[in-house]
Amino acid sequence: MEGTLNALVVLANYVVIPATAYGAQLALGALGVTLVFGILRFSNFAHGDSMAFGAAVTILTVWALQAAGVSIYPLPTALLALPVGIAATAVLMILTDRAVYRFYRRQKANPIILVIVSIGVMFIMNGLVRFVIGTEDIRFDDGARFIVDVRGFKAATGLAEGLAIRSAQVTTLVTAVAFVAALFWFLNRTRTGKSMRAFSDNEDLALLSGIDPERVVAVTWIITAALATTAGVLYGLDKSFWPTTYFQLLLPIFAAAVVGGLGSPLGAIAGGFLVAFSEVAVTYAFRRAAGHVMPEAWMPEGLVQLLSTDYKFAVSFMILVVVLLFRPTGLFRGTAS
Amino acid sequence: MRKTLFATTAALALAAVSAQAQEVKIGILLGFTGPLESLVANMAPGARLAIKEINDSGAFSLGSLVTVDGNTGCVDAPLATASAERLVTADHVSGIVGGDCSGVTGAAFQNVARPNGVVMISPSATSPALSTVETDGYFFRTSPSDARQGIVMAENILDRGIKTVAVTYTNNDYGKGLADSFAAAYGERGGTVTINAAHEDGKADYSAEVGALAAAGGDALVIAGYIGQGGSGILRASLDSGAFDTFVFPDGMVGDELETSFGPEITGSFGQNPASAGEGAGVFHGMATAAGFNGTSPFAGESYDAAALIVLAMQAAGSIDPKVYKDKVLEVANGPGERILPGELGKALEILKGGGDIDYDGASGVELVNEREAAGSYREIEFVDGKLSVVRFR
Question: What CATH number does the domain containing A234 carry?
Fold first, then answer.
């Protein structure tokens, strides 16, 4: 019995908890990608760097708040600074839209042209972020670090294995749930949300019924900015802020959006968790967990690991390829990508 | 009136040029950015300190010394090669202190320094691979090979009664070389390495890597990585998930950041880095403090020695041509002759000018073996109450 408990604790500590937090971050990122795809009809490659920009502005605000002595301990100051980051990112996105995307939209450019344009925007944002905050690795999580720590858990339960739950992981999950709930309420219940969905379903009909397209586009960018900044800040709180890692996040985020079905918000969330759990579970070595439940004699020699951790990013690729081959519309029947 | 002024200025300028002796340029090719930048912050001043001391002494008879910086990025071989190329072809340096990390040092040396015939003395490249590469006599290092550190680390761990360890290394020449030499030495002496896995630098999240290391188990985790990079990530993730309690830090991990970022969390962990117990280290530390940098930081003393060796060899050969003075490097480093400590460079230059012999000991007790590298004495460190303390020298 104790063996089983120990095995469960090991799995929770190394697989379930990290993957859940990571999944929530991916889900928020994928929601932003899927929203832009659904309403503006192109894959926004600049999304990863929008996350970095939002996180960078939030960090600058955190520093300003810290200097002013403002703190909401045990919660991280970043939560207080988040609205500033969102506002700055929203302004940047709307300016980018006015300066770049609107031109191509008026020309009714092919979506692939918009994709290429977004890659250009990505490089500019990438440079902008480095220019603003530098290329260093930054930790800005100043709240209480642990809710449950390993030593405390061992002492409380008497188990051989420890369990750690970091406050950043819980913050991530709670914030993500709150955000997603607010987004769904907005899309399903408010007039603006309904007009966005109408615009997404059929652009011409929406225009005929008097929906202002520029307003829909602007609102979409603002929501995308909010999602991107929140995802970026949560990822930075959980791990650490490093401009280049957000670019690397692009692949799992797109994998998540495609798995769920591009354009489907529910799909993006499911996809985020699916990709996160696959990445962690496929590269996790199950030897230690197995050791607690299996008799000594059956103990395997190897690490019981499907793939070496070097191949973590390959997991997203594999999921992408499999989904595109067998179910191009994704799990939740989004647009064929 | 104006004409006179011009004429005077011109004459003065001319006089200044002719009065100035020939400029001898020394390149400092280190990773001013990248994983080792926190160490380079004390290494580059170390090298400059030696040059300044020599210039101030006025005893160098071949000209006045100027340093030129080049960046390696520590792990960026194309950048290091381009920087070395600039130092050699545009700045015409007569010798190079550097590079810092093993991979870029090898690249800069084989692509630029060796074909152009410029002497390179690295203060911190420790890969065993550099012990065997062809050098044509142009490459030296004041740091020892990691083959030696592997043995020292194995003994250090076994002396503490730890029989099984997990090893993770940064995926490059330095990490792989050190991890392999350690695994061999540890195995020979009866220890068991449960896993020897690489990690990539420059990621935000190392929980998956730590998960695999934890699954393999072991009484301690050896992190053969960089403190400013993946090494910190692995350490942070291991502490957070409670995967390991005791850590072993080789030279790339020993830095001020360990104390400031981790402090009390790593009490009981230990490690070692190349450093000498000799008299020179103490003298150098005092000089460094006066000059405003940390002389006990890893490789700071070695950097001072690398710069000093280049200039002393020039003086001994009576030439700033690398093709000539390269043959004198071992002679001034290993003696026989008068023993030279840091702060005595002026005296050493005078002795050499008078045709005498010196045995340069410097800040790190320089003694070059294998015709290129330091024999290697290591400082064993341990964290007591969150502070780095030196246990002894091996």
Answer: 1.10.3470
Asked if residue A208 is part of any domain, the answer here is: yes
Nearest CA in chain B to A246: B204
CA distance B264 to chain A (A): 15
Provide the ipTM: 0.76
**Is pLDDT at B154 greater than 60 in this prediction?**
yes
Please report residues of A whose CB lies closer than 8 A to that of B214: 14, 288
Which of left, alpha, beta for A139 (phi over 0: left; psi -120 to 50: alpha)?
beta
Do A309 and B240 make contact, defined as CB atoms within 8 angstroms?
A: no
CATH superfamily, domain at B147-273+378-393? Response regulator (3.40.50.2300)
Confirm if B265 and B239 have CB atoms less than 8 A apart: yes
Could you say which of A137, A240, A303 has the minimum Cβ distance to residue B215?
A303
Confirm whether A332 is domain-assigned: no
Please tell me if residue B385 touches chain A, with a CB cutoff of 8 Å: no
Kindly report, residue by residue over A269-320, the tens digit of the pLDDT: 999 999 999 988 888 888 778 888 877 777 777 777 788 777 888 888 888 8
Q: Token pair for residue B155?
A: 């003994």
pLDDT in tens, B285-305: 999 999 999 988 889 999 999
Q: Dihedrals φ, ψ of A147, to 5°?
A: -95, -45
Chain B residue nearest residue A167, CA to CA: B240
Secondary structure (3-state) at A249: helix
Which of the four pLDDT bands, split at 50, 70 and 90, describes residue A170? Answer: very high
Instruction: Find chain B residues with C-beta within 8 A of A286's C-beta.
Output: 215
Number of domains forming the structure of chain A: 1
Query: Strand, helix or coil at B265?
Result: helix
3 state SS of B188: helix
Domain ranges of chain B: 20-145+278-374, 147-273+378-393
CATH of domain B20-145+278-374: 3.40.50.2300
| Cα(B307)–Cα(B386) distance, integer angstroms | 34
CA geometry: angle at A60 spanning A58 and A63, to 5°?
110
Q: What is the pLDDT of residue B18?
A: 43
Q: Quote the distance between the C-alpha of residue A159 and its chain's center.
A: 34
Cβ A13–B200 below 8 Å, yes or no? no
